[in-house]
Amino acid sequence: MPQSLFLKFLLQKSIKLLVLLGAVALLSFFLVSRSPIDPIDAYVGAAILKISPEQREVIADRWGLDKPPAERFFCWAGRLVRGDFGISTIYNEPVLSVIGKRFITSFWLMLLAWSFSGVLGFLLGIAAGAQEESLLDRVIRLYAFTMASTPTFWVGMVLLTIFSIELDWTPICCAWPPGMSAEETCFWQRLHHLLLPALTLSLIGVAQITLHTRGKMIEAMNSEYVIFARAQGDSTLGIVFRHAVRNAALPAITLQFASLGELFGGAVLAEQVFSYPGLGKTTVEAGIRGDVPLLLGIVIFSAIFVFFGNTLADIIYKYIDPRMRRMAGT
Amino acid sequence: MFVQLYRIHLNRRSRTLVTVISCLALFAAVFLGAWLYGENGEITNLQLRKLPPSWEQPFGTDWLGRDMFARTLKGLRISLMIGLSAATASAIIALILGLAAATLGKAVDTAVTWLIDVAIATPHLILLILIAFACGGGAKGVIIAVAASHWPVLTRIIRAEVLQLRSSAFIHLSAKLGRGPLWIAWHHMLPHLLPQFVIGLLLMFPHAILHAAALTFLGFGMSPHTPAIGVLLAESMRYLSMGLWWLAVAPGLTLIISVQAFDILGNSLRVLLDPKTCRE
Amino acid sequence: MKRKAHYLKHFAIALLGSAFIMGSMETVYADKESIILAIGGENPEGYDPILGWGSYGNPLFQSTLLKRDADLKIVPDLAVDWSLSEDSLIWTVKIRADVAFSDGSPLTAEDVAFTFNTAASAGGLLDLSNLQKAEAPDDETIIFTLKTPDITFMQHFISLGIVPEKLYGPGYARNPIGSGPYKFVRWDEGQQMIVEANDRYYGDKAKIKKLVFLFSEENAALAAARAGEVDVLGIPSSFANQDIAGMKLHVVKSVDNRGLMFPLVPNTGKKTPDGLAIGNDVTSDPAIRKAVNYAINRQALVDGVLDGYGRPAYGVVDDMPWDNNKIRFHDNDPAKAIEILEKAGWVDANGDGIVEKNGRDAEFVILYNSKDILRQGLALTVSEMLKRVGIKAIPQGESWDRIKKELTHLHVVVYGFGDHSPLEMYKLYHTSGPEPLYWNAGFYSNPVVDGYLDQALLAKTFEDSIPYWQKAQWDGETGFAVSGDAAWAWLVNLDHTYFINKCLDVGQSQMEPHGHGWPITANINQWQWTCN
Do B117 and A310 touch (CB under 8 A)? Predict the structure, then answer.
């Protein structure tokens, strides 16, 4: 693409991104400020009887809750443009620090899980759709629906019990061995701790991609040119790889890149079952306890990942199916 | 002679019809059973706690002595209602938005894509909680909350499908022959979108049920002692490590069977309605 | 192309294989030198006493002026002498001279004064609004000036850990230097915290050199214990009836209680200043409240809902030094409950199983916090028990926020309390202002009881206050206990259950307050490893 066209493209995308960030921040702030949950009550918890109304006012003052919502939002936005993400009220430390600590550890886990579940899901979908109603198809469908219907926590606990307790192949928790510091552990230990959470997330995450790909694959296998190719004597496998796969890739691409935000957001499952640090629980806490700086900080980064993912998907569509290049709107 | 008749009439179409009717009969039985059993699932009995399955209690009893069979039946009715309503509403929103984005021009597409990005980037649980609370909680709040927050990804899938369809030969032909966009959408695109639409709906159904449970435990859904399947499953987690397997297996199996039944139903209907396969 | 794939496959297998082998070579031994505890205790704000860390007792990294021993008697810690002035407004405390923080710098009265003064305005979980100021005239003396007399202010001497003035700053919470028995080493948020014994500790030095706190979720922690990798496991009582290899069950009594709060005024349409509706026409009748108390079978609740890990609760402070054991009564007496109801005019005229009076059914809602399965169990079983005396109780689960913002003054609520300080009793039963929030949500008001509670605060010593706390419950003629106004229906006291490695001796555990897990570390410097 010529230089000027590329710059124009970049400029357009950047503006879209900024508008998106603004909208998401505003919406999240609005949601949290209208939330029924009182951040002071959430903070005080069981100590409710020991905290007098005067003390509640001191807490409110410390968090700036006594100011009107519009003022708080503009205060936050003003600080943000100067690069100051603010201090988290839950963690009592800078938002970037809270996010950074957790994101850095969880990123590799999420990358592994995201990639693996995408590839595995796609392959399973192809295998199932290539021969509709075959034994393989039924088994894969049953697996996918079972994964979609089972609470993920349960699957995680079962896998933990099997692999970490009964078989003792994988560690019982955490991103590195308890009692040691991150710096003391070597690459292999970190990989060892990564394996079961990544496997669990992948096994659970394939359901959507598998079933959507299978549906598209069935449609592709029933299409005219597949019938034509069969008539010409092509084997099923040949047909699958040369004609059907490319078509069946569309929903898989959509799903995979729509979930790019996971790379940032982490998975609550990994944190709960494997105590693997990440931003999943933190995001929920921030929302539930009205920690505005932290929530908005997370939302900003999350929106960047989501925007990036969906834009990538739109670009990839054009390579998968050249006919889509002629479409307006992307 | 009967055998001959049987063989003649059991082509794929007939078999499919039988399957469809059986599935529907199963669901009807669930609703009837739940209505007949009534309030039996609510009675606590501290003498009969944590009993494994037996003749009197086919699914055993739970940690407060309640009959799991009655609870599961009632829960299935509740969850079917919640899951189907939320999933259908969400899927229909996705269909409309997806179609609109890909057929009504660049401005609409930009707007819808932007809306999707906003929805996906906003923390899921907070969106759910606030909408459920604003709608007064309970089953109604849960349905509206789940429906209003689960359309983005399916919208993107449908949008991509339509974008691909738009460029195919027969659509071009139709347009050249003077058919308006709505006619084309209804007659040509919808049948091709149906598979992805149905899959999306089917996947959203158990998802909605599990979300209903999460919202309930946070206090923004129904009362946690309502035996909705998701709630039963979540409660059973605690007791699995104690060996009370029936608490999880009964609701778990019923959910999986329901989802499978819908899947079979969906597949069968597609076979019956798809012009390529309906005469087999 | 095929060969490349072939090598790739072999490489992948080798990679994964090595990962297994190398990774499995790490083992975590529990030996005399270090133990692993899964008892919760992760505080997102960090470990800063000024913000409230340790207010459940035992801040671990820091020391406090006073502490409670295994029998809950107040004994000296940093303080060697403490006295209250005649007008009950000025505390004079003398501290030891030989205390140093873990970095070597000495702990002086300046640090104590600094800690208290800063905590008063810090906006954390400590309510020091009654403190006028704290001063340190010399290195070993601190003078605390209060605004109003309140003997329960002493509780802060027991729970507020002392921080070093010179080292305190915004990052203190994640690097908490103190003079406690253990010093902070590192905290991997969401995973673990590592602490080591403090060699400079002035008291009994800890025998176990290194502690690793694992911050796993309940089920995951239980799995870890099953795999033999946890030495101390805090679990809810529903998990306690099982065997874990190498571990023994350790049951600790607690004052952690659960009970039913009744609205005590009728619904006349009045509202609080914040707009909450007040009153319940059924529970405002003392006969109903007494009948509920007599109809319930508390032992069955303990056996059924708590799996046997607990004891019946007849009052708010059972078995504490300020408990009045004259308030005990025989529950599980439906005949007596029905009799009380009849005498007050509640009869079942229309045969529907529910008693009525003046056309109103004996019906009310019991609210419980949706997140709490124990409270749910209590609400459901109590409803079942009340059916046999003709009272219809409808259990309903709600979020705390909804309970607090709309419902708490209208319905019966399952609440839980339990503290080492009797201030709780004051807050629950003293006549409150127009918006009592969670405290005296039922708007209980009895001037005689108020009198006793006020006098308790004015007492010169803690021991002197005890008779007044007792009289407030029942003085022979009136009180808030069942024999008097029956303001609440207290149900059960929880036992806190732990699994402990058979080789670990944790000494005698204190009766724990509300919230189990961390309180077991109260005597952690005395724990020892008994195997060889």
Answer: yes
A273 — contact with chain C (CB < 8 Å)?
yes
Query: Higher confidence at residue B35 or residue C479?
Result: C479
CA separation for the pair C517, C522 (Å, rounded): 11
**Cross-chain Cβ contact A272/C220 below 8 Å:** yes
Burial of C423 (0-12, 13-18, 19+ CB in 10 A): buried
- Chain B residues with CB-CB distance to A24 below 8 A: 117-118, 121-122
Q: Which residues of A touch C246 (CB under 8 A)?
A: none
Hey, is C423 helix, strand or coil? helix
- What is the domain partition of chain B in residue ranges? 14-33+84-273
Alpha helices in A82-223 (DSSP H): 95-130, 135-149, 152-159, 187-221
Structural domains in chain A?
A: 15-81 (no CATH), 102-327 (1.10.3720.10)
Beta carbons of C210 and C196 less than 8 angstroms apart: yes
Which residues in chain C have their CB less than 8 angstroms from residue B231's CB?
none
Taking CA–CA distances from C380, the nearest residue in chain B reads B44
Is the reported ipTM for this assembly greater than 0.95?
Answer: no
Residue ranges of the alpha helices (H) in C121-264?
A: 154-159, 218-226
Q: Which of A19, A259, A326 sits opposite B167 (nearest CB)?
A: A326
A17 pLDDT above the threshold of 80: yes
**C179-228 pLDDT, tens per residue?**
999 999 999 998 999 999 999 999 888 999 999 999 998 889 999 999 89
d(CA B194, CA B201) in angstroms, rounded, equals 10
The chain B residue lying nearest A153, using CA atoms, is B237
* Residues from chain C contacting residue B49 (CB–CB below 8 Å): 304
Please report, in angstroms and rounded to a whole number, the separation of the first and last CA atoms in chain B: 23
CATH number for B14-33+84-273 (one of 3.40.50.2000, 1.10.3720.10, 3.30.9.10, 3.40.50.970): it is 1.10.3720.10
Nearest to A181 among C186, C223, C427 (CB): C186
